[in-house]
Design a protein that fits this description.
This protein has 339 residues and is an alpha/beta fold. It contains 15 helices and eleven strands. It has three domains: 1-45, no CATH class; 86-266, Rossmann fold (3-Layer(aba) Sandwich); 285-337, Winged helix-like DNA-binding domain superfamily/Winged helix DNA-binding domain (Arc Repressor Mutant, subunit A). Helix 6 (104-119) packs across helix 12.
Length: 339
Protein backbone atom coordinates (compact mmCIF):
# COMPACT_ATOMS: atom_id res chain seq x y z
CA UNK A 1 0.00 0.00 0.00
CA UNK A 2 1.37 3.42 -1.01
CA UNK A 3 3.36 5.14 1.75
CA UNK A 4 2.81 2.37 4.31
CA UNK A 5 5.98 0.98 5.88
CA UNK A 6 6.50 -2.75 6.05
CA UNK A 7 6.37 -2.63 9.86
CA UNK A 8 2.99 -0.86 9.82
CA UNK A 9 1.66 -3.26 7.19
CA UNK A 10 2.71 -6.24 9.30
CA UNK A 11 0.96 -4.72 12.33
CA UNK A 12 -2.27 -4.25 10.38
CA UNK A 13 -2.17 -7.76 8.92
CA UNK A 14 -1.42 -9.23 12.36
CA UNK A 15 -4.40 -7.46 13.88
CA UNK A 16 -6.76 -8.71 11.16
CA UNK A 17 -5.49 -12.27 11.56
CA UNK A 18 -6.03 -12.23 15.32
CA UNK A 19 -9.68 -11.20 14.97
CA UNK A 20 -11.33 -12.61 11.80
CA UNK A 21 -14.59 -10.86 12.73
CA UNK A 22 -13.11 -7.43 11.96
CA UNK A 23 -14.21 -5.74 8.76
CA UNK A 24 -10.90 -5.33 6.84
CA UNK A 25 -11.75 -2.08 5.05
CA UNK A 26 -13.32 -0.45 8.11
CA UNK A 27 -10.32 -1.43 10.23
CA UNK A 28 -7.84 -0.09 7.71
CA UNK A 29 -9.70 3.19 7.20
CA UNK A 30 -9.80 3.76 10.96
CA UNK A 31 -6.13 2.97 11.48
CA UNK A 32 -4.29 5.98 12.98
CA UNK A 33 -1.75 7.99 10.95
CA UNK A 34 -2.29 6.27 7.61
CA UNK A 35 -0.73 8.26 4.73
CA UNK A 36 -3.15 10.23 2.55
CA UNK A 37 -2.34 8.17 -0.56
CA UNK A 38 -3.09 4.96 1.32
CA UNK A 39 -6.45 6.33 2.47
CA UNK A 40 -7.26 7.40 -1.07
CA UNK A 41 -6.67 3.87 -2.36
CA UNK A 42 -8.66 2.36 0.50
CA UNK A 43 -11.62 4.56 -0.35
CA UNK A 44 -11.46 3.21 -3.90
CA UNK A 45 -11.19 -0.42 -2.76
CA UNK A 46 -13.94 -2.93 -3.49
CA UNK A 47 -13.70 -6.24 -1.59
CA UNK A 48 -16.24 -7.81 -3.95
CA UNK A 49 -13.42 -7.86 -6.51
CA UNK A 50 -11.56 -10.33 -4.29
CA UNK A 51 -14.60 -12.60 -4.00
CA UNK A 52 -15.11 -12.58 -7.76
CA UNK A 53 -11.42 -13.21 -8.42
CA UNK A 54 -11.38 -16.23 -6.09
CA UNK A 55 -14.52 -17.60 -7.72
CA UNK A 56 -12.81 -17.30 -11.12
CA UNK A 57 -9.76 -19.34 -10.15
CA UNK A 58 -7.71 -16.84 -8.21
CA UNK A 59 -5.78 -17.78 -5.09
CA UNK A 60 -3.99 -16.10 -2.18
CA UNK A 61 -0.80 -17.36 -0.57
CA UNK A 62 0.45 -16.40 2.89
CA UNK A 63 4.16 -16.69 3.78
CA UNK A 64 3.67 -20.24 5.10
CA UNK A 65 2.71 -21.24 1.54
CA UNK A 66 5.81 -19.74 -0.10
CA UNK A 67 8.47 -21.92 -1.78
CA UNK A 68 11.88 -21.92 -0.09
CA UNK A 69 13.54 -19.57 -2.57
CA UNK A 70 10.92 -16.87 -1.92
CA UNK A 71 11.50 -17.12 1.82
CA UNK A 72 15.14 -16.21 1.22
CA UNK A 73 14.09 -12.64 0.42
CA UNK A 74 14.88 -10.11 3.13
CA UNK A 75 11.37 -8.66 2.79
CA UNK A 76 9.10 -11.16 1.03
CA UNK A 77 5.57 -9.95 0.24
CA UNK A 78 3.07 -10.17 3.09
CA UNK A 79 0.72 -12.03 0.72
CA UNK A 80 0.93 -13.30 -2.83
CA UNK A 81 -2.08 -13.07 -5.12
CA UNK A 82 -2.36 -15.23 -8.19
CA UNK A 83 -4.28 -16.78 -11.05
CA UNK A 84 -3.47 -20.00 -12.85
CA UNK A 85 -1.52 -23.00 -11.60
CA UNK A 86 0.07 -22.14 -8.24
CA UNK A 87 2.30 -25.23 -8.43
CA UNK A 88 4.29 -23.49 -11.17
CA UNK A 89 5.92 -21.37 -8.46
CA UNK A 90 7.51 -24.46 -6.92
CA UNK A 91 9.09 -25.56 -10.22
CA UNK A 92 12.60 -24.35 -11.25
CA UNK A 93 12.23 -20.98 -12.93
CA UNK A 94 14.60 -18.79 -14.93
CA UNK A 95 13.72 -15.12 -15.29
CA UNK A 96 14.26 -13.33 -18.60
CA UNK A 97 14.17 -9.55 -18.26
CA UNK A 98 14.97 -6.41 -20.23
CA UNK A 99 13.73 -3.14 -21.59
CA UNK A 100 10.22 -2.41 -22.83
CA UNK A 101 11.67 -0.44 -25.76
CA UNK A 102 13.56 -3.38 -27.20
CA UNK A 103 15.35 -3.61 -30.53
CA UNK A 104 14.41 -6.23 -33.11
CA UNK A 105 17.59 -8.07 -32.07
CA UNK A 106 16.58 -8.01 -28.41
CA UNK A 107 13.05 -9.22 -29.17
CA UNK A 108 14.38 -12.12 -31.24
CA UNK A 109 16.90 -13.09 -28.55
CA UNK A 110 14.28 -12.97 -25.79
CA UNK A 111 12.01 -15.30 -27.74
CA UNK A 112 14.95 -17.60 -28.54
CA UNK A 113 15.96 -17.89 -24.88
CA UNK A 114 12.36 -18.29 -23.73
CA UNK A 115 11.83 -21.12 -26.20
CA UNK A 116 15.15 -22.80 -25.44
CA UNK A 117 14.77 -22.74 -21.67
CA UNK A 118 11.17 -23.98 -21.85
CA UNK A 119 12.28 -26.87 -24.04
CA UNK A 120 14.71 -27.88 -21.27
CA UNK A 121 11.93 -28.00 -18.68
CA UNK A 122 12.39 -24.63 -17.00
CA UNK A 123 9.46 -22.35 -16.35
CA UNK A 124 10.15 -18.98 -17.94
CA UNK A 125 9.53 -16.10 -15.55
CA UNK A 126 9.15 -12.46 -16.54
CA UNK A 127 7.11 -9.34 -15.87
CA UNK A 128 4.34 -9.49 -18.48
CA UNK A 129 5.31 -6.09 -19.87
CA UNK A 130 5.89 -4.92 -23.43
CA UNK A 131 9.21 -5.64 -25.11
CA UNK A 132 11.58 -8.28 -23.74
CA UNK A 133 9.10 -9.64 -21.17
CA UNK A 134 6.40 -10.42 -23.72
CA UNK A 135 8.78 -12.08 -26.17
CA UNK A 136 10.21 -14.30 -23.44
CA UNK A 137 6.69 -15.41 -22.46
CA UNK A 138 5.78 -16.00 -26.12
CA UNK A 139 8.92 -18.04 -26.73
CA UNK A 140 8.04 -20.36 -23.84
CA UNK A 141 4.48 -20.74 -25.08
CA UNK A 142 5.67 -21.45 -28.63
CA UNK A 143 7.75 -24.33 -27.24
CA UNK A 144 4.72 -25.77 -25.44
CA UNK A 145 6.23 -24.76 -22.10
CA UNK A 146 4.97 -23.02 -19.00
CA UNK A 147 5.55 -19.38 -18.14
CA UNK A 148 4.78 -17.13 -15.17
CA UNK A 149 4.28 -13.36 -15.15
CA UNK A 150 4.92 -11.26 -12.05
CA UNK A 151 2.50 -8.39 -12.48
CA UNK A 152 2.76 -4.76 -11.45
CA UNK A 153 -1.03 -4.76 -11.08
CA UNK A 154 -3.42 -7.20 -9.47
CA UNK A 155 -2.99 -10.64 -11.08
CA UNK A 156 -6.48 -10.42 -12.58
CA UNK A 157 -5.79 -7.13 -14.38
CA UNK A 158 -4.69 -7.51 -18.01
CA UNK A 159 -2.00 -4.84 -18.23
CA UNK A 160 -1.04 -3.94 -20.83
CA UNK A 161 -4.43 -4.72 -22.39
CA UNK A 162 -2.80 -5.87 -25.62
CA UNK A 163 -1.47 -8.92 -23.69
CA UNK A 164 -4.90 -10.14 -22.58
CA UNK A 165 -4.79 -13.08 -25.02
CA UNK A 166 -1.23 -13.97 -24.02
CA UNK A 167 -2.14 -13.98 -20.32
CA UNK A 168 -5.09 -16.28 -21.01
CA UNK A 169 -2.83 -18.64 -22.96
CA UNK A 170 -0.29 -18.64 -20.12
CA UNK A 171 -2.90 -19.75 -17.60
CA UNK A 172 -4.40 -22.33 -19.98
CA UNK A 173 -0.91 -23.80 -20.52
CA UNK A 174 -0.20 -24.46 -16.84
CA UNK A 175 1.44 -21.14 -16.06
CA UNK A 176 0.32 -18.35 -13.79
CA UNK A 177 0.10 -14.65 -13.13
CA UNK A 178 1.21 -13.57 -9.65
CA UNK A 179 1.48 -10.27 -7.85
CA UNK A 180 2.24 -8.76 -4.45
CA UNK A 181 -0.75 -6.48 -5.14
CA UNK A 182 -4.37 -7.48 -4.41
CA UNK A 183 -6.91 -8.42 -7.05
CA UNK A 184 -8.25 -5.42 -8.93
CA UNK A 185 -5.19 -3.21 -8.29
CA UNK A 186 -4.74 -0.96 -11.33
CA UNK A 187 -1.46 0.20 -12.80
CA UNK A 188 0.44 2.67 -10.62
CA UNK A 189 3.99 3.77 -11.64
CA UNK A 190 5.34 2.87 -8.19
CA UNK A 191 4.10 -0.72 -8.47
CA UNK A 192 6.57 -1.90 -11.07
CA UNK A 193 9.83 -1.20 -9.22
CA UNK A 194 8.20 -2.77 -6.15
CA UNK A 195 7.48 -6.03 -7.98
CA UNK A 196 10.99 -6.42 -9.47
CA UNK A 197 12.57 -8.00 -6.35
CA UNK A 198 9.80 -10.62 -6.41
CA UNK A 199 10.95 -11.74 -9.85
CA UNK A 200 14.45 -12.22 -8.47
CA UNK A 201 13.11 -14.00 -5.39
CA UNK A 202 11.13 -16.54 -7.39
CA UNK A 203 13.86 -17.21 -9.97
CA UNK A 204 16.70 -19.68 -9.81
CA UNK A 205 18.63 -17.43 -12.19
CA UNK A 206 18.12 -14.24 -14.19
CA UNK A 207 18.94 -13.67 -17.87
CA UNK A 208 19.26 -10.01 -18.92
CA UNK A 209 18.66 -9.62 -22.65
CA UNK A 210 18.76 -5.87 -23.33
CA UNK A 211 18.99 -2.99 -20.87
CA UNK A 212 20.08 0.65 -21.18
CA UNK A 213 21.86 2.30 -18.29
CA UNK A 214 18.67 3.35 -16.45
CA UNK A 215 16.53 0.27 -17.17
CA UNK A 216 14.20 -1.02 -14.46
CA UNK A 217 15.42 -4.51 -15.35
CA UNK A 218 18.70 -3.63 -13.63
CA UNK A 219 16.76 -3.42 -10.35
CA UNK A 220 15.74 -7.05 -10.83
CA UNK A 221 19.35 -7.99 -11.51
CA UNK A 222 20.54 -6.13 -8.40
CA UNK A 223 17.98 -7.96 -6.27
CA UNK A 224 19.07 -11.27 -7.81
CA UNK A 225 22.72 -10.58 -6.99
CA UNK A 226 21.80 -9.71 -3.40
CA UNK A 227 20.09 -13.11 -3.14
CA UNK A 228 23.07 -14.93 -4.62
CA UNK A 229 21.22 -15.90 -7.79
CA UNK A 230 23.11 -16.61 -11.01
CA UNK A 231 22.96 -13.68 -13.43
CA UNK A 232 23.55 -14.11 -17.16
CA UNK A 233 23.79 -11.29 -19.69
CA UNK A 234 23.35 -11.38 -23.47
CA UNK A 235 25.77 -9.00 -25.24
CA UNK A 236 24.63 -6.52 -27.86
CA UNK A 237 26.19 -4.07 -30.31
CA UNK A 238 28.86 -1.98 -28.60
CA UNK A 239 27.56 1.14 -30.38
CA UNK A 240 24.01 0.80 -29.02
CA UNK A 241 22.96 2.80 -25.91
CA UNK A 242 20.22 0.18 -25.43
CA UNK A 243 22.87 -2.23 -24.11
CA UNK A 244 24.89 0.10 -21.87
CA UNK A 245 23.39 -1.39 -18.72
CA UNK A 246 23.93 -4.92 -19.99
CA UNK A 247 27.57 -4.31 -20.92
CA UNK A 248 28.23 -2.64 -17.57
CA UNK A 249 27.19 -5.85 -15.83
CA UNK A 250 29.46 -7.90 -18.08
CA UNK A 251 32.38 -5.61 -17.21
CA UNK A 252 31.54 -6.11 -13.54
CA UNK A 253 31.77 -9.88 -13.88
CA UNK A 254 28.32 -11.14 -14.92
CA UNK A 255 28.36 -14.27 -17.06
CA UNK A 256 28.06 -13.59 -20.77
CA UNK A 257 25.76 -16.03 -22.62
CA UNK A 258 24.97 -16.47 -26.30
CA UNK A 259 22.73 -19.54 -26.15
CA UNK A 260 20.10 -20.83 -23.70
CA UNK A 261 21.97 -24.11 -23.35
CA UNK A 262 24.82 -22.21 -21.74
CA UNK A 263 22.37 -21.19 -19.01
CA UNK A 264 21.16 -24.78 -18.67
CA UNK A 265 24.75 -26.04 -18.36
CA UNK A 266 25.62 -23.44 -15.71
CA UNK A 267 22.58 -24.47 -13.68
CA UNK A 268 23.63 -28.11 -13.68
CA UNK A 269 22.22 -29.43 -16.95
CA UNK A 270 24.28 -31.09 -19.68
CA UNK A 271 25.35 -29.11 -22.72
CA UNK A 272 23.36 -30.42 -25.66
CA UNK A 273 23.96 -28.55 -28.91
CA UNK A 274 20.74 -28.86 -30.92
CA UNK A 275 21.14 -29.49 -34.61
CA UNK A 276 19.76 -26.93 -37.06
CA UNK A 277 16.36 -28.01 -38.36
CA UNK A 278 16.17 -29.65 -41.77
CA UNK A 279 15.05 -27.38 -44.58
CA UNK A 280 11.36 -26.65 -44.24
CA UNK A 281 11.11 -28.27 -40.79
CA UNK A 282 9.52 -25.92 -38.25
CA UNK A 283 10.35 -22.89 -40.39
CA UNK A 284 7.78 -20.16 -40.85
CA UNK A 285 6.81 -19.02 -44.35
CA UNK A 286 8.87 -15.87 -43.79
CA UNK A 287 11.96 -17.87 -42.82
CA UNK A 288 11.53 -20.19 -45.79
CA UNK A 289 11.31 -17.17 -48.11
CA UNK A 290 14.52 -15.75 -46.64
CA UNK A 291 16.30 -19.10 -46.88
CA UNK A 292 15.28 -19.45 -50.54
CA UNK A 293 17.13 -16.19 -51.26
CA UNK A 294 20.37 -17.77 -50.08
CA UNK A 295 20.31 -20.70 -52.50
CA UNK A 296 22.70 -18.86 -54.81
CA UNK A 297 25.17 -17.92 -52.09
CA UNK A 298 25.66 -15.10 -49.57
CA UNK A 299 23.34 -12.10 -49.76
CA UNK A 300 23.25 -8.74 -48.00
CA UNK A 301 20.27 -7.82 -45.86
CA UNK A 302 19.18 -5.05 -48.26
CA UNK A 303 19.10 -7.54 -51.14
CA UNK A 304 17.02 -10.00 -49.10
CA UNK A 305 14.54 -7.21 -48.31
CA UNK A 306 14.23 -6.33 -52.02
CA UNK A 307 13.89 -9.93 -53.18
CA UNK A 308 11.34 -11.03 -50.58
CA UNK A 309 9.35 -7.80 -50.48
CA UNK A 310 9.33 -8.01 -46.68
CA UNK A 311 9.96 -5.05 -44.37
CA UNK A 312 13.53 -4.46 -43.22
CA UNK A 313 12.74 -4.75 -39.46
CA UNK A 314 10.98 -8.09 -40.04
CA UNK A 315 13.86 -9.46 -42.11
CA UNK A 316 16.43 -8.35 -39.51
CA UNK A 317 14.44 -9.95 -36.68
CA UNK A 318 14.03 -13.23 -38.58
CA UNK A 319 17.69 -13.32 -39.61
CA UNK A 320 18.71 -12.84 -35.98
CA UNK A 321 16.51 -15.74 -34.89
CA UNK A 322 17.75 -17.95 -37.75
CA UNK A 323 21.38 -17.11 -36.94
CA UNK A 324 20.87 -18.04 -33.30
CA UNK A 325 19.33 -21.34 -34.41
CA UNK A 326 22.25 -22.02 -36.76
CA UNK A 327 20.05 -21.94 -39.88
CA UNK A 328 22.05 -19.06 -41.35
CA UNK A 329 25.39 -17.49 -40.59
CA UNK A 330 26.73 -14.00 -41.21
CA UNK A 331 29.95 -13.24 -43.00
CA UNK A 332 31.67 -10.39 -44.83
CA UNK A 333 29.50 -10.92 -47.90
CA UNK A 334 26.23 -11.05 -46.01
CA UNK A 335 24.12 -13.96 -44.81
CA UNK A 336 24.46 -17.52 -46.08
CA UNK A 337 23.00 -20.89 -45.18
CA UNK A 338 24.32 -22.47 -42.01
CA UNK A 339 26.41 -25.61 -42.13
Amino acid sequence: MAGVSRYLAQSIVGTLRQDPTLNPLATLRAWPNLPAEALKRLNQADLSLVDRALEQGGWIWEPTDYPDNLREMESPPLCLFGRGDASALSTPMVAIVGTRKASSYGLAVAEFFGKGLAEQGFIVLSGGALGIDAQAHKGALAAGGRTVAVMGTGPDVAYPAVHKGMFAQMEASGGARVSPFPFGTPSFPSNFPARNPLIAGLAQAVVLVEAPAQSGALQTVAAALDLGRDVFVVPGPITSPAFRGSHGLIRDGATLVEHPMQVVEALGGGMIQPLPPEEGDDLSETQQAILACLNGGPMLTEAIVRQTGLSAPLVLAELTMMELDGIVKKGRDGYQRGL
